[in-house]
Design a protein that fits this description.
binds magnesium ion; eight-stranded mixed β-sheet; alpha+beta; four-stranded mixed β-sheet; binds adenosine-5'-diphosphate; 29% helix
Length: 325
């Protein structure tokens, strides 16, 4: 298999046709984009590495492709932008060039089709392990991208979906419990995280969210990022957290739902703040995602957790690559 036929194979399996705003796609030296009037591009890049982000013997190839693109695109959703195009840099060992590659690309294609994204280019290399680098381009109406820095004291703090499910799935994989049949549905949030692009775009278009971030490293860590960027604090109510349900059969393993919800990584839900006078315009479900109010933005810098024993500081205990989990 040579490089050209490999690129042809990638192109065949992923949506990659030109559009009025992608006038030149795969095949030339570079892609050409033509921004529609009234639109700003939002761009991000994300790496997904074998033995760091996934294990080839525990994560099926289709999960690798799906999740690599979902993670990268989640940052576009968190800006309130619609994902449009992506670039794929792919490093592969020769023993991954067969069905593994096809299944990986099919997982990626499934997410791309569902969310209207097209592959605009990339680079293909040989490497000792699998390396994926995804660059994603989205668009927002000019000036409407939602930043981390817009939260103000008095705003209400909301989160989409359920928290802690992805960490629970990861723990099941790491403890070798994932092969038990009862564990299968519990792996879903870890294998196929949601992509909240429609929710993000709705919140941005209606100018409901004053600040927004996606939950990649865990609530305690990502809420800290949002508060620091906005120069505010927050008060979170433990009892309000939409924590994952741990089935009774797993009780002997000692999983604590509220701890998973507070510090577990990779849920890829959206955390956002809404000025109180706008909060009544929010419905309990928006763009297919359940919304939960978990607290409020405060003056000062402290992120405080209100639990049964009163108030305490919520320390960031989510994922950090250079500190460890
Ligand atoms: P160059 O050698 O000039 O960098 P390449 O041979 O790497 O060109 O790429 C040729 C074309 O194929 C380019 O349009 C590039 O964007 C595209 N391409 C290469 N690898 C990938 C990939 N993994 N996914 C999508 N497009 C790719
Ligand atoms: Mg190249």
């Amino acid at each position: 298999m040579d490089e050209l036929s490999l690129i042809k194979r990638i192109r065949r399996r992923l949506p990659s046709a030109v559009t009025p705003s992608l006038t030149t796609g795969i095949g030339d030296d570079a892609a050409v984009l033509r921004p529609p009037r009234g639109v700003e591009w939002v761009i991000t890049t994300d790496g997904f590495l074998e033995n760091v982000h996934f294990l080839a013997n525990a994560h099926p190839p289709d999960v690798v492709g799906y999740k690599a693109l979902a993670r990268a695109t989640s940052d576009i959703a968190a800006m309130g932008a619609r994902p449009r195009y992506f670039l794929l840099t792919l490093g592969l060992p020769t023993h991954r060039l067969g069905t593994w590659l096809d299944q990986m690309l099919d997982g990626m294609a499934r997410l791309a089709r569902r969310h209207g994204m097209r592959l605009a280019g990339g680079d293909t290399l040989r490497n000792a392990s699998v390396v994926l680098s995804l660059t994603v381009i989205g668009e927002s109406p000019t000036g409407r991208s939602v930043l981390r820095s817009g939260a103000r004291p008095g705003d209400l703090v909301f989160v989409s979906g359920t928290l802690g499910g992805a960490q629970l799935g990861l723990e099941l994989v790491l403890r070798g419990l994932y092969k038990e049949r009862t564990a299968r549905p519990l792996l879903r949030p870890h294998f196929y995280p949601p992509l909240r692009d429609r929710l993000g775009a709705r919140l941005a278009a209606a100018q409901l969210a004053s600040a927004m971030i996606d939950l990649s490293d865990g609530l305690s860590t990502d809420l800290g990022h949002l508060c620091r960027a906005s120069g505010v604090g927050a008060r979170i109510e433990l009892a309000r957290l939409p924590a994952v349900r741990v089935p009774p059969a797993l009780a002997p393993h000692g999983f604590a739902p509220q701890e998973l919800a507070l510090h577990g990584g990779e849920d890829y839900e959206l955390l956002f703040t809404v000025p109180p006078q706008k909060a009544r315009r929010l419905s309990p479900t928006l763009a297919g995602a359940k919304l939960t109010r978990i607290g409020e933005v405060t003056r000062g810098k402290d992120v405080v957790l209100v639990g049964p024993e009163g108030e305490r500081l919520l320390e960031p205990r989510g994922w950090d690559h250079f500190r460890g989990g």
